[in-house]
Every structure is written in structure tokens, then in C-alpha cells.
């Protein structure tokens, strides 16, 4: 089976969110391995921290607040892989 | 938690802060060179009846610190009336908790002005509301003029990479064009606080 699922993490590069971005990327890599075709990290601005799977926004700091729980985000990704 | 002379003196001087920066020092120093203080503002700071202590919370990754700390640095240098000590936000949470933005956000920079007896004159957080407002308006105008950027509220990861890069360029240009206004607003607000010091 060829993985085609893409995860994108957009983070504010002016806000010092690198650690949280890398922590989440690592958690997704370890959890899903080759089930994901891409984990893309997008440096942005304006306090952004957003996670999408295949174009669907599953976490947004502006919408849900905070960086989101890693386990909740993993569950949301898993739901879209099945 | 109180700020007194002993705690204040443990902070970094402006020069020491710059020396320990691990990133963005070039941007900060370029902004410092570009600061254009008006004669009137400078005269007001030079005319302060006594020196004012300014405690700063900062981190070198923060865009608002890189934009606004140089203004304070230049005001201190050019007026000789501000004693600045800088504390790293993430190593001084007790101070940060006292100056949360809207009571909940760890926004920086924070500038806290004290008289010589460490009575607080006032504090300043992040950037002027007027600057946030003007930039939000200009941002909306950019999106209105460029339908290819989509909705201003949509996640940017939905944009093609080349479009995203163009949007980033437009936003950087807008920030550059509003810098003069932003700097004037910052100095106006800092002056209002500093001049509360009693003769």
C-alpha cells in the first residue's frame, strides 16, 4: 500500500514555536511511520499554530487554543487514515 | 514577588543582552540603526527629572522584541536617562506571571518603568493597539487586492507554495511600510509612561 496522507504543521516562526512543532512532528513520525507520505513544516507568522491532514484543519491555536494535546491530534490523524 | 534594586541589577544590560543573542542580532541591530527619534521626543526623555529604571522581558526569537527593543535601546542611549535591565522571559516566569497580556498571554517584549525607589510608573506590552489595528486593516487590503491569496482567515497551508511565498512577501512589505508609524506609536506610548516620574 502506498501512503498518500499528508500532514502539514504551520507554525509562527516569530513566536518561538519551533520546539512544540518539532515535538509534534516527532510524535507523528513515531506513531504513524510510513503511513504518512509527508510531514511538512511551514514557518509562518501572526501566532499561527495549525495542523492539517489532507487539507483538513484538525487543530488551530486560533480556533481551539494552545498547541493541542499530542494524543488528541494523533487520534484526529488516525481517524483520517482509516 | 517584588522588584527591587537587587533583583533589577541581576538583569542584562542592553549590550550584554545583544551579546548573548543566539539569533536575530543582525535584524535587531539593523532596526536600531533605522530608529529615527524626533527632537521633541528626545528632548522629553532628556528632560526627565531623574533616571528611570526599565525592566524588560524579552527573548531573541520574538518578532515584536526585535522590532521594539531597539527603540528602547536607542532612547536609553541617546537620552542617558533610562537604566535598562533585560530578563529572559523563559528563565524569569515569576516576573512574566505578573505582567501577562490580558491576564493570560506571555506576550513580549514587556517594558516596566520604575522610579529610583522602584515604585512602578507603568508598563508596556508587546506593541501598541494602534499598530495591531493598522496592520490588520492593511492585511485585509492585501487579501482584497489579491484574490489568489484566498480568505484571510483560511489556513495558509492550503495555498500553493509559490502563492504562499508571494503572500509572505506582501506581508513583509506591509510591515516595512508601517514601521515608521509603528515606531512613532511605540515612542509616544513609552514617553507617556516615562514622563510620569516625579520631579
Could you explain how this protein is built, in words?
The complex is a heterodimer of chains A (82) and B (199). Chain A has 82 residues and is α+β, with helices and mostly antiparallel strands. Chain A has one domain (5-81): Glutaredoxin (3-Layer(aba) Sandwich). In chain A, 38% of the residues lie in helices and 33% in strands. The two termini of chain A are 13 Å apart. By secondary structure, chain B is an alpha+beta fold. Chain B has 2 domains: 5-127 and 189-194, 3-Layer(aba) Sandwich (Glutaredoxin); 130-175, no CATH class. In chain B, α5 (63-79) links the parallel β1 (52-58) and β2 (82-88). In chain B, α3 (25-34) crosses α5 and α7 (129-145) crosses α8. Chain B is globular and about 55 Å long. Chains A and B meet through β2 of A and α8 of B.
Provide the descriptors you would attach to this structure in a database record.
heterodimer; A: 82 residues; alpha+beta; Glutaredoxin; four-stranded mixed β-sheet; 3 helices; 4 strands; 38% helix; 33% strand; B: 199 residues; 2 domains; 9 helices; 51% helix; 13% strand; globular
Q: Could you give a short description of this structure?
A:
The complex is a heterodimer of chains A (about 80) and B (about 200). Chain A has about 80 residues and is α+β, with helices and mostly antiparallel strands. Helices cover about 40% and strands about 35% of the residues of chain A.
